[in-house]
Amino acid sequence: MAPTPLLLLLLLALTLVSAAVHPLDPLTAAEITSAINVIRASPLNSSASLAFHYVGLDEPPKPAVLAWPRSAPPRRAFVIARAGRATHELRVDLGNGAGRVLSDTVRHGSSFPTFTPDEQDAASVLPFQYPPFAASVARRGIPLSDVLCTTFSAGWFGRAERWAGRRVIVVQCFVAAGTANFYARPVEGVTAVVDLDAMEIVEYEDRVDPPVPKAEGTDYRAAAQRPPFGPENKPVTVVQSEGRGFEVDGHMIRWANWEFHLSFDPRAGSVISLASIKDSEEGTFRLVLYRGHVSELFVPYMDPSAEWYFKTFFDAGEFGFGLSTAPLEPFTDCPANAEFLDVDVSSGDGSPVRIPNAICLFERYAGDVAWRHTEFGFPGEMITEVRPEVSLVVRWAAVVGNYDYVIDWEFKTSGSIKIGVALSGILEVKGTYYAHADELSGDAHGSLVARNTLGVYHDHFFTFRLDLDVDGANNSFVKSRMKPVRAAGGPRRSYWTVEKETARTESVGQVELGSTTELMVVNPNKKTRIGNEVGYRIISLGGAATSLLDDDDYPQRRARYTKKQVWVTPYDEAEKWAAGLYADESRGDDNLAAWSQRNREIENRDIVLWYTVGIHHLPCQEDFPVMPLLTGGFELRPTNFFESNPLIRRRPNKPATRLHCSLH
Amino acid sequence: MAPTPLLLLLLLALTLVSAAVHPLDPLTAAEITSAINVIRASPLNSSASLAFHYVGLDEPPKPAVLAWPRSAPPRRAFVIARAGRATHELRVDLGNGAGRVLSDTVRHGSSFPTFTPDEQDAASVLPFQYPPFAASVARRGIPLSDVLCTTFSAGWFGRAERWAGRRVIVVQCFVAAGTANFYARPVEGVTAVVDLDAMEIVEYEDRVDPPVPKAEGTDYRAAAQRPPFGPENKPVTVVQSEGRGFEVDGHMIRWANWEFHLSFDPRAGSVISLASIKDSEEGTFRLVLYRGHVSELFVPYMDPSAEWYFKTFFDAGEFGFGLSTAPLEPFTDCPANAEFLDVDVSSGDGSPVRIPNAICLFERYAGDVAWRHTEFGFPGEMITEVRPEVSLVVRWAAVVGNYDYVIDWEFKTSGSIKIGVALSGILEVKGTYYAHADELSGDAHGSLVARNTLGVYHDHFFTFRLDLDVDGANNSFVKSRMKPVRAAGGPRRSYWTVEKETARTESVGQVELGSTTELMVVNPNKKTRIGNEVGYRIISLGGAATSLLDDDDYPQRRARYTKKQVWVTPYDEAEKWAAGLYADESRGDDNLAAWSQRNREIENRDIVLWYTVGIHHLPCQEDFPVMPLLTGGFELRPTNFFESNPLIRRRPNKPATRLHCSLH
C-alpha cells in the first residue's frame, strides 16, 4: 500500500521533532518509560528482584554528536539494573517505535551500582522490625516512635571473606523528635548492616551509648526560632528592565557570546556540553568545553572507630549525585530573575520521577566590574572607562543526606568559565560523653560543636571531568613553571622566568597545585596572529586540599586520584567516573589512577582534564546546626585564546538610571 | 570677666561638635589647612623647597580611642614634609583654635617620603627641556608633540656612591598620540633620572630603539571602538524596595549586625577600624578588628635590563596608595544602590584636594545563599530552609599609573569579613623588535601580547595590616596542623587529626600558607559555653604567591616579608608600613621582617596579623589593551566566636515577589 499524504505528513512531523532533539539531551520521562518497558518485555523481567539503578542517556560517540544537526545518532538508553544478585548493563534502542535491548552485559563480584532511593528507604525501616534494636533504644530510654534511621555506604575494607560479595549498606539511627534536624541527635553506638539484595539485617552491634545530644538549638526552621533574633537586612532584588538576556531553546542555552548544551545525569547532576564562545572578530563560535560535569565526590571521615571508620563516601558513585538533587527554591536559592528547569529521573522500579526546579539559570550581577581604567597621565584630562561584570550562572544543588552542595557553572563574557562548589547543610556529628572542651582527652577525631556533639573531621573532594576541546579536539597540556634566575652582573641580582613543559604522557599530566606553576590546555594546531598557541588556563579559586590518607588504606585505594588535584588522560568514552563505574565497595582497580598507570600519550590529542576541589573540614561551633556556605572552585580562563581582551569592543549599556519599582 | 551665658552656650556647642568627631576620623579639609598653616607659621617655612608629602591623622593611642566617647583625645596631624634635602616628621596639635607644632623630627640619609603628585608632574616634563631627549625622539621619527612622560621609582640598588643620598626618580616616555592608552606605545630605551629635590635630570640614556608599537587596537574607550562589536547583555540592576539597609553616621557605618569606623589615609587608602559584630544572644557588640588596611603593595618586574631592572614598585610607600585613588563611577564601578563618600587629601603645597566618590558602600546580593538545607529524611515530608546572602561592601580603587586595583572589604552577617583585591587596568609593556612568537629567542622576560609588545612578567604582593582584637585586645595565634595518623588495628588504616600550636614568639607566627594548616587568631581569655577559645580563622581565597627573588637582591631586601604570606607581631604603633615608613630607596632595615627579627613574644598579647595576597602575573593577549579583572583575597571567618551559626536565628525577609519597575 502506498503511503497516504496524511501518513507522509506525520512522518515528516516526526522527523522534524526528532531533529529538534539534541543528541545529548537527557532522556525524557517518555523515553525512560520506553526504555523500562523494553527491559520489562525482555527475559530479565522474570527476576523477582529486578531494580533500576541508573537510567540515563547512552552518550553517542563524539563524531556523531559533532555531526548533528546534519545527521542525528540513534537515541539509546544506558540502564544499570540489578537482578538476582547480578548487575546488568543494558543498552536499549529507543528509536522508531519498537525499541529493543541492544546488549546486556552481566557483572558479578563487586560491581555494585548506585543505591536506589527505594532500597535505601526499605533498609532504613528494617531496624524497626528487628527486636534487638527496640531493646537498644529502650535501654537508652528513648521512645521508639521518636527514632528514624538512614543509610550509610559500607565501603570496602578487605572484608570479602566476611560478607562474601554481598551488597551491603549500614543503617544508623537518630532521635528525630523535637527538631527538624535529622542528624543532630545520633543514637550513637548502634550499627546495623543490611544485605540490600536480600533486604535483611546481617549484622547488628550496640557498642557504646553516650548521651543523645539535646534537641535545643538544633532546629533551623524559621518557625522554630525564638528571640533574640539574629541580624536582619533590607531586601535586595535583582531587576532586568528589558527582561532576561538568555535564551533556553530545548537544552541549548544562548547568552551574550556563549552557547552551550545543558543536560542532567542521574549520577553527575548538571552537565555542560559543547560550550562555545563567539569570536566577535571571526563571527564564529569556537568550542571550549565538549563536556563537563561532577565525576565524583569523595568524603572520608577521620574517625577509625567501629561506628565511623567506614564513612568514606563516594556521593556520585554510591548515592547518585544527580538523584540527590534538591529542588531549588525561587527567590532564595536563586534570585528573582532566574529561570528554573525540571529534570526527569527514574525511580528504582523504573517509573519516571520529575524533580521540579532542579536547575536554575540566571544572570548574575554582584556589583563588580569586568574591567576598568582611569588614566591620569594626559595633562588636564581624566579618562575613566569601566564595564560592569554580568555573567550567566547555571546552578544545581544536591543534598546527600546531611550535606548540601551547590554547584555553579558561571559563564563570563570575557571567556572565563568559573566552576564553584559550595557547602552548606548539616555536619555529620557524633554523640559523645564530652559536654565541655576541658573534658576532651586523647584524640576525639572532631571538634566539640555543641554539648555531647562532636563535628567529626572530614574532607570533601569534588572531582570534575572536563573534556576540554579548546578550539578543536586535539589539545596539549602545558605546565609553565616560574623559575628563579640569578642575574648576571647589573644592579638587579635575581628575577624569575618561565619554563614551559608540554606533557607527553599521563604521568606528566598529574599535578599537585602550587603558586609557581600555571596550568594550561592549549591547541597546538591553532595560533593567534602573533603566534601564541590558543589556550585556556586553570586557576584555583580556593579548595586545593589533597587526601592525607595512606596509600594502602582501603578508601584511599578507591580514591587514589585524590592525591593530586589535576590529571590529564586521553579521551576514552568508558572513562567517566573518577572512582570507577561501580564505586560502591569498589577495589580501586577501575578508577582514574588505575587508568592512568598505562601512562598513555596525551600530547596533541583529544584529552580530558580532571580537576579536584578539595576541602579539609575542621568543624567549629558556627557550623552548627546548619553551616554557613563554604566555597571553593576554579576558573577556566582564556589565555591567548583571543587576539586581545574580547570585552574591550563590548559596547556599554545605555547610561543606567535609578529604577522606580513597586510590588504589585 | 565672668563668661556670659552666650559664651557658655557657644562653648557647650563646640564641645558637642568635638564629641561628634571620632578620634579616628581622617583630617577634614579644614584640619589639613589648619595643620599646614601652623607649619607655614613655623621656622620651617623659610625653606624655599618646603613640600608636604604626607598629611594625615596622627593616630591616637589605642586606650584613648577605646575611651571614646567618654573622653576624646586631642586632634593631631602627622605631617611628613621635605625641606632643604631633609625629611621632617611633624606632629601638629589641631585643638582649641591656635594649633602648634608639637614636634619636628629631622631625618637625613635615605628617609625619603612618598612622592607628591606635583613633583612627579614636574619631573615628567623635564625631558622636554632637555635637548638630548628631543634628539632621541627625533631619531625615532616621532613628533615630540606626540610624546608624554611619566615617573617610575628608581629603587635602591646599592648605588649610594653614584647618587650619594639624592632623592631620584626615573622618567620614561610614551607615544600618547592616537590612543587613550598612555602605556601601550613605549619610547623604549630612553631613560632619564631626575633629582627630585633639585628637580633636574642627573642621568640620561638612550640605549636601544625597538619599534614603537602601533596605536591600532590599544584604545579602550567605548567611543574609539569599531565593529564588529563584542558581546552584549541585557541590563541588570539591583533594587532595594525599602531603601538602603546601612547607616552612615559621620564615619561610623552600621549595617545588620556590624558596626565599624570607615576612614581614609593618603598612604593606605580605605581604613576599617573598630569592626564589631553584635552578638544577638548577648545583645552586645564584640570587637573583631581594631584596624585594618593595605600596608604595602610590592610590584617587582622580572626584567634585569637597564630600562626595567629598577621596576620594583612599593605602591603605598612610594606613590601613596590613597593618593592614587580613582574616583568611582556610579552605576559601573559600584551598583545603583551604592552610596559614595568623598575624601580630602593634601597636595604637595599643602592645599586640600577633595577626591569625589573615593569610596562606595553598597549591599551586595549576588544571587547566592548564606546557608541552606533540604531534609528528605522525614517520611512523607520535605523540609527546605534557605537564606539568601546579602553582604555589605566597602569599595575603594587606586590607579597607580597603569594598574587599577579595587580593594573590597565585605562584611557578612555570618561574621565573616572578606577582603578582596582585584587587578585591572593596563599592563606595563616593553617595546620589542619581536612581532611574532616564532621570533622570540632566549629569555624575553615577558609574553608577546601584541606586535612589538611584551607584557613583562611581574608580581603583585598586597600586604594587609590587620590589628585583630578578637573579643578584646589580648589574642594568640594558633596553627592547627592536620597530621596523618596510622590507625592501630581495625579495618581503617589511616586518618588525620589536628595538632594545635600556639605561637609563643614571632618566628612561629611566620607562616607559608598550605592546605594542611588552619590559621586562627583566638582570644585565650574568652571561651564559648562549651569551652572553645573564641577566634577567627584566616582562609585564602586565591592569590597565595610568595616572592621568588633571591634574599640578597636589593628589592627583596626591602620586601623581605614577601617570602611568607603571614606574619604576626606584637602591637607597636610605630609599625604600620610593612616596607618601612620610608619605602622609597629604603635599605630593608625598617620593615616587617626586620622588626620581627627581635622574635618578640606574641602569645596572649595585643597582636597584629600581616597577610599578603600574592599574584604571579604571566601576561597573555587577553590582558591587552586593558586586562579583565583578576582577583585574590582572603576571609576572616568566625570560628567558635559564636555559640552557633548566628544566621539561624535571622528571620527571613517577607516572601519576595517580583518587582515591577520603570525608568522615570
Automatic annotation (TrEMBL), chains A, B:
Q: Which InterPro entries match?
A: Cu_Am_Ox_Cu-bd, Cu_amine_oxidase, Cu_amine_oxidase_C, Cu_amine_oxidase_N2, Cu_amine_oxidase_N3
Report the residue ranges that make up the Copper amine oxidase N2-terminal domain in this protein.
Answer: 22-97
Processing after translation: Topaquinone (TPQ) is generated by copper-dependent autoxidation of a specific tyrosyl residue.
Superkingdom to which the source organism belongs: Eukaryota
Keywords attached to this Swiss-Prot or TrEMBL record, sorted alphabetically, are:
Copper, Disulfide bond, Metal-binding, Oxidoreductase, Signal, TPQ
Report the cofactors: Cu cation
- Can you quote the record's cofactor note? Contains 1 topaquinone per subunit.
Copper amine oxidase catalytic domain span: 237-647
Known EC number: 1.4.3.-
Checking PROSITE patterns in the record gives: COPPER_AMINE_OXID_2 (PS01165)
Q: Where does the UniProt annotation place the signal sequence?
A: 1-19
Top EC class per UniProt?
Answer: oxidoreductase
Q: Name one GO molecular function term.
A: copper ion binding
2',4',5'-topaquinone modifications at:
Y403
Question: Copper amine oxidase N3-terminal domain spans which residues?
Answer: 113-207
Which Gene Ontology BP terms does the record give? amine metabolic process
Q: Which family does it belong to?
A: Belongs to the copper/topaquinone oxidase family.
What's this protein's name? Answer: Amine oxidase
Species per Swiss-Prot/TrEMBL record: Zingiber officinale (Ginger)
